[in-house]
Each structure stands twice: as structure tokens, then as C-alpha cells.
Specification:
The protein starts with a strand and ends with a helix. Helices cover about 40% and strands about 15% of the residues. With about 300 residues, the chain is α/β, with parallel strands linked by helices. The strands form 3 sheets. A 7-stranded parallel sheet has the order 3-2-1-4-5-6-10, with helices on both faces. It has a 3-stranded mixed sheet with strand order 7-9-11. Strands 8-12 form a two-stranded parallel sheet. The longest helix has 20 residues, at about 85-105. The protein binds 2-amino-3-ketobutyric acid.
Amino acid sequence: MSQKCLILGANGQIGTELVIALRAKHGVNQVIASDVKPNNAPEQEGPFIQLDALDESALRAVVVREKIDAVYLMAAMLSATGEQHPDLAWSLNMNTLFHVLRLAKDGLISRIFWPSSIAVFGPSSPKENTPQLGVMEPSTVYGISKLSGEMWCQYYHQKYGVDVRSLRYPGLISHKSAPGGGTTDYAVTIFYEALATGHFDCYLSSDAALPMMYMDDAIAATLALMDAPATKAKPGVAYNLSAMSFSPEALAEEIKKHLPEFTISYAPDARQKIADSWPKSIDDSWARKDWGWKPQYDLSQMVSTMLAHLK
Ligand code: AKB
């Protein structure tokens, strides 16, 4: 199905790669990239509009003028930055979602993608193989905004028939664009430091295992979810999504197989508390059963691919 898409937050870690993948699929002019900042991704050739998703009337005007079918809302403030700016994180993460949900409720667009996160889980959730449903008491502003957002997506689907699709992304690892403000960002920075200086000082403890995924898998999952019929990829459900799980120590060991001189030290900071509150691994059996999700990259494939690109 060829759709005219609008990506909000196109300059971000996921947005950058999502725009490229959607343009390859739907055609360059079918995909409008937008961000609050000017376009900083030269590899995204195609239409770009500077747009603040918090400005509801500006957003509506673009959607109507460009005859948009689907909106991908990738603008968000992540976990670590959110703890420093709680009001701003809540305002950005929730208000942009309401703006997009209302576009669909009013019949201006037919489908939404909205990213959730493993941050919806909290200290009282099971740590290993955390199931789709169960105790969710997030302890970060980011997690609270994602869990609330999930509930609002479900509500808009049930009450108004809005077709909103969602994934609970784990930490994402990519080489095209840097993450910003997350707890899992170390798993990207480590590669740059390993190649530049041969050493990495990690802000998490050696055994802080977290669910992670290579970006190609995250993009493939997003496209598959948006393409699947609503009878399979259920609107209003934020699917658990899993590929691998590792600690900083395990990641360092894998990097050492390629760079034997690499060393790592540990100086946990405030982000350790956030990591402690999250699952160590995720059960994504709903996504596998409902719409056939299957990741391609494990830890060793991800590490060799990252190093090959960054070298
Ligand atoms: C973060 O660390 O805040 C994000 C996430 C897991 O949603 N990468």
C-alpha cells in the first residue's frame, strides 16, 4: 500500500533511518520529513518541512496541504533527559500524541505510528522475559508518559476507531545517527570510543543487562507493523519487541573479539537507577504470533556490523 507519510522528529535517531526506509518503499516524494530543527540529515534526499509538533494548527495545516495518510510521531524526550526536565518531557511526549490522535479522530489521516518503550515497565515488573501484560509501574517521567500514551492510544482506538500502531522499542543501536538523552545510549557511544581511543568509561555498572536491538531490525519491525492488516497487527496494542539482551561487560567482551586492546571501566551515575528499574529481557511472543515478527541481528552480528560501518 503506497501512503503519503509525514515523519515528525525526522532528525532523531530512529527518524533519520525511518525516512530513508519509507522513501525506498513508498517513493521519495511520498514521504515528508519534518523536525523542529532544520534538516540535518543530508542522506535523506527529499521533501523536508521545519515543523514543531507542539504547534497543533501548524501540524494540521501541513497534514491537510500535503494530503497526508499516515503520521509517524518520532519526536520525544527520552528517559535520562526526561528526569532533568520532567515538565517539558511530559508536555512534549503527551501533547504531540494528542495532536496526532485528534488528526485521526477528525478523519484527516488514516493511520498513526507511535513509539512506546521498555520504559513502561518499572521496578515491580518481572525482570526476565517480561510479558506483554502484567505489572507496569514505571518510575521515570518518560516511562509514565509512554504508559499513559499507550492507554490513550487504546482509548482512541476503542472509542473513535483510530488506527494507531505501536511498538515498545528496546535500546536501539545504530551508526547513521546518534541517540540522545536515553539510558541505553552507552551501547552506541562505546563503539565510537572503542575505535577513537580504545577505552570506554561506562555510566552503567558492568552487569546492567538491558533489552537491545540493532536499528535495521527496529525499522523492519516498524514497516511490518504498519503494513500488516488490522486483524493481525492490532491497533491500540503497543507490542513488546525483542532481539537481544546484554550487559555492558558482555558487549565489551564482544567488541574485544575485534579490538583485543579495548578496555572498559565503570562509573555508574544517575542512569544506573533507571536501568535497574527496567526489564533485563523481554517476551515478545505476541508480536511473533500476531504479525510474524522475527529479528535478524544477535549480539555478534550487531557488533561486527557496527564496527564494519564505523571503521
Ligand atoms: C532510553 O534509553 O530512554 C530509550 C528507550 C529504552 O526507550 N532508548
